[in-house]
Structure to design on (810 residues):
């Protein structure tokens, strides 16, 4: 791991801890627990995400999001695609990392959309719950998201509540399911969730006609060395 | 500022422009092609990257730099549409298309006459501008044949010289010989569709596609990788213009392609003749080409826009617009959807060529009796992934969960986890009628990266005839889904009335200069050395994808230029 990677990892874990620790420790999946332990010191305690010192600390700044916004985004994306045992969610897939990198690159023209969307979100949460989104419990967070989805949340002008929600949802799905080279879908978490084998070069007539789960080949990504098994959902019927 | 002289300039080297470049070059004419995008190669398409090609639309026009705006009616301000489904590089839309390659039915070329003959004039909505084409299926058959054989189309005949053949499309117009290549392999969704449709007495078949089912013309056959619609083909098995006609054009020694160039004006003189075009180079330079023949072959928006922008004192309403029909009669397919989920099997619809895999034609055109129905015409019905592209991002965007399942949260996650590999989408590609108030013009408020006014679409498909047709087809598709054995079948939403896939019209062809912009050879009535290629010339749209018809018309125009116009320039009809 390079120094850069370590710094980036600290940013992501810090954001996840900021959201997860407040919103409920159960949200941080096992895959993250080890990292969380290792970086506990670097990220201080999971509380007080608004401490001014955090903003000055380049060790935990993302490519785009500041610390508070990263914690909010981490919570938002995990509520949109929550993880559970054997069901990877947004945290497992590093969806925050995907969106953070996209906004500092391909989607740089949407930076202000996100800044204002997140500010309006916190204004709405402040008015309705007296706290920013990242500090709410998961049930309250779901209520807020539903109000956004249905266009009922006040305090939004541009982006509109629905416009902001739709973009969040789109970018969360991209982070879940885009090739890992873009920073999300970590260890093919999203592809494993749905049973997609990725960038296969071919399917045989037998593969095509089969009514069974595809298992002939491991998952293939764009970069060599990244392979996994497309695990179909365990349930039958 | 550079000025060049040539015999022929072609603006846009896609489905039609590429064919004309090759055929006119072979006839010894010097051809310059202007292409606003790059010229990519098969080697560029190795990355199987859904985010880049499907979601971020890397092979399509950039919606921010080249906006197209839409409004449902003339009373409201237009806003940019979020997806542009045409091409933005050499080869045009054929680089990323789903490759569906249909011959239109015989009655598709004479919708007005046929409808009146069978049902009476009252069957046509009073406000529809539905019209006959100035040519028949029989006129175009030899050129459909050339397109299928020269490009490489896989399929099975259903009507060979009048003899109906089960397993092919028995509703197709008679063809004089088989497809050059056998039909593509069916996948699990195709097998299910076949079985379900047969149970109901319908006539399903493997859709004809411009994808090689066997090696052909030194190109390898399809690998069924599934990265198809929205993607360039990583082995060159998709019969795009890039790997078919452009190499032929190169080999003539008479063709020069200028990439990164944007044509912004068609030049005419006081005699009423086209003298050439002006364009911006990739370095921002302003250049002119003088040509004996000017062929516009961009997507339909730019055919209309260039003619409107290039107006002169002699042509005050835009070039080639003495009829007043320029920009009118816009049509678009509405893609009505029914989703089907299976609990007893995997479908794995991400395998194989993704778009409109298996088809039934029983409810298209006038293939079924419309007596007593409150609509005319129909749709091709096919089995597809949710958005004709099959990866998980596209599925998350377009597979609408069934009623009662939210589109986010734990229940949505579980829905995707279970059904991404266990669903199919029935899609009806409806033949929406032309109406004169469905238009393309210049947006007064929004400009593109070159400062040109954006093309503006005024369109709302939600008319009584169209809504009744969609309701009829939705019921048919629900029946097919159940017959396929789906455990759950539900309808997709109808959207806001915006134009869907395959925008056509705007420079319609006809047999009367007073009511049409071009003649059957896509030659403008007003300016004989100006040709307009592509689906902008289609008077009606059929329930079929337009590309093979665009290509057949291009072969017909090339034939007329080489064998007649070249010897004696002037009106061809």
């Amino acid at each position: 791991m390079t120094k850069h990677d370590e710094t980036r990892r600290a940013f992501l874990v810090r954001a996840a801890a900021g959201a997860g620790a407040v919103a409920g420790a159960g949200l941080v999946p096992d895959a993250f627990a080890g990292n969380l332990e290792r970086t506990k010191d670097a990220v201080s305690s999971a509380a007080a995400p608004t401490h001014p010192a955090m903003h000055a600390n380049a060790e935990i700044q993302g490519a785009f999001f500041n610390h508070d916004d990263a914690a909010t985004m981490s919570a938002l994306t995990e509520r949109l695609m929550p993880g559970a045992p054997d069901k990877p969610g947004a945290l497992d897939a590093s969806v925050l990392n995907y969106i953070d990198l996209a906004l500092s690159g391909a989607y740089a023209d949407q930076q202000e959309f996100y800044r204002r969307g997140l500010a309006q979100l916190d204004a709405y949460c402040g008015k309705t719950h007296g706290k920013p989104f990242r500090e709410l419990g998961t049930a309250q967070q779901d209520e807020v998201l539903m109000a956004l989805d249905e266009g009922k949340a006040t305090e939004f002008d541009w982006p509109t509540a629905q416009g902001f929600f739709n973009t969040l949802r789109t970018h969360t799905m991209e982070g879940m399911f885009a090739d890992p080279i873009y920073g999300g879908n970590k260890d093919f978490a999203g592809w494993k969730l749905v049973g997609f084998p990725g960038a296969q070069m071919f399917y045989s007539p037998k593969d095509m006609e089969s009514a069974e789960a595809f298992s002939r080949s491991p998952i293939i990504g764009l970069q060599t060395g990244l392979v996994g098994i497309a695990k179909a959902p365990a349930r039958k019927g | 500022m550079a000025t060049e002289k040539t015999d022929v300039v072609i603006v846009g080297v896609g489905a039609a422009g590429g064919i004309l470049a090759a055929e006119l070059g072979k006839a010894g004419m010097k051809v310059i092609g202007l292409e606003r995008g790059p010229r990519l190669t098969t080697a560029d398409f190795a990355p199987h990257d859904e985010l880049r090609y499907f979601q971020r639309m890397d092979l399509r026009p950039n919606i921010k730099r080249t906006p197209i705006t839409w409004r449902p009616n003339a009373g409201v301000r237009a806003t940019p549409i979020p997806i542009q489904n045409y091409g933005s590089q050499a080869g045009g839309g054929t680089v990323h298309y789903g490759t569906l390659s249909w011959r239109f039915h015989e009655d598709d070329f004479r919708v007005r006459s046929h409808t009146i003959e069978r049902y009476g004039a009252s069957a046509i909505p009073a406000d529809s501008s539905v019209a006959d084409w100035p040519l028949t299926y029989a006129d175009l058959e030899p050129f459909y044949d050339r397109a299928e054989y020269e490009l490489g189309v896989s399929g099975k005949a259903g009507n060979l010289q009048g003899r109906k053949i089960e397993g092919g499309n028995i509703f197709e117009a008679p063809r004089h010989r088989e497809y050059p290549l056998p039909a593509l392999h069916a996948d699990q969704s195709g097998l299910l569709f076949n079985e379900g449709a047969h149970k109901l007495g319908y006539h399903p078949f493997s859709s004809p596609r411009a994808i090689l089912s066997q090696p052909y013309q030194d190109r390898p056959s399809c690998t069924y990788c599934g990265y198809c619609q929205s993607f360039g083909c990583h082995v060159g098995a998709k019969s795009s213009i890039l790997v078919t006609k452009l190499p032929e054009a190169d080999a003539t020694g008479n063709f020069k392609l200028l990439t990164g160039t944007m044509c912004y004006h068609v030049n005419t003189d006081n005699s009423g003749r086209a003298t050439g075009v002006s364009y911006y180079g990739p370095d921002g330079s302003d250049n002119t080409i003088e040509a004996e023949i000017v062929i516009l072959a961009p997507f339909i928006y730019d055919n209309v826009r260039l003619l409107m922008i290039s107006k002169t004192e002699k042509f005050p309403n835009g070039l080639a617009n003495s009829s007043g029909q320029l920009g009118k009669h816009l049509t678009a397919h509405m893609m009505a959807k029914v989703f089907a989920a299976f609990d007893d099997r995997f479908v794995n619809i991400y395998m194989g060529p993704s778009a409109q895999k298996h088809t039934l034609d029983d409810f298209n055109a006038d293939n079924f009796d419309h007596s007593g129905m409150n609509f005319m015409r129909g749709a091709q019905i096919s089995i597809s992934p949710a958005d004709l592209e099959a990866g998980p991002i596209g599925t998350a965007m377009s597979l609408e969960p069934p009623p009662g399942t939210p589109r986010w949260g734990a229940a949505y996650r579980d829905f995707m986890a279970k059904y991404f590999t266990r669903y199919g989408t029935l899609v009806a590609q409806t033949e929406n009628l032309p109406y004169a108030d469905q238009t393309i013009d210049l947006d007064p408020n929004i400009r593109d990266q070159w400062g040109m006014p954006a093309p503006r679409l005024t369109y709302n498909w939600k008319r009584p005839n169209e809504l009744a047709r969609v309701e009829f087809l939705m019921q048919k598709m629900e029946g097919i889904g159940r017959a396929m054995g789906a455990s759950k079948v539900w309808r997709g939403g109808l959207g806001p009335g915006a134009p869907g896939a395959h925008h056509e019209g705007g420079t319609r062809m006809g047999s009367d200069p007073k009511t049409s912009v071009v003649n059957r050879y896509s030659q403008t009535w007003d300016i004989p050395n100006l040709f307009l290629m592509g689906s902008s010339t289609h008077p009606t749209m059929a329930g079929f994808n337009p590309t093979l018809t665009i290509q057949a018309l291009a072969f017909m125009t090339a034939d007329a230029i080489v064998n007649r116009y070249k010897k004696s320039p002037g009106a061809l009809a």
Observations:
- Chain A is about 50% helix and 0% strand.
- The two ends of chain A are 43 Å apart (CA to CA).
- Residues 195-237 of chain A form one domain.
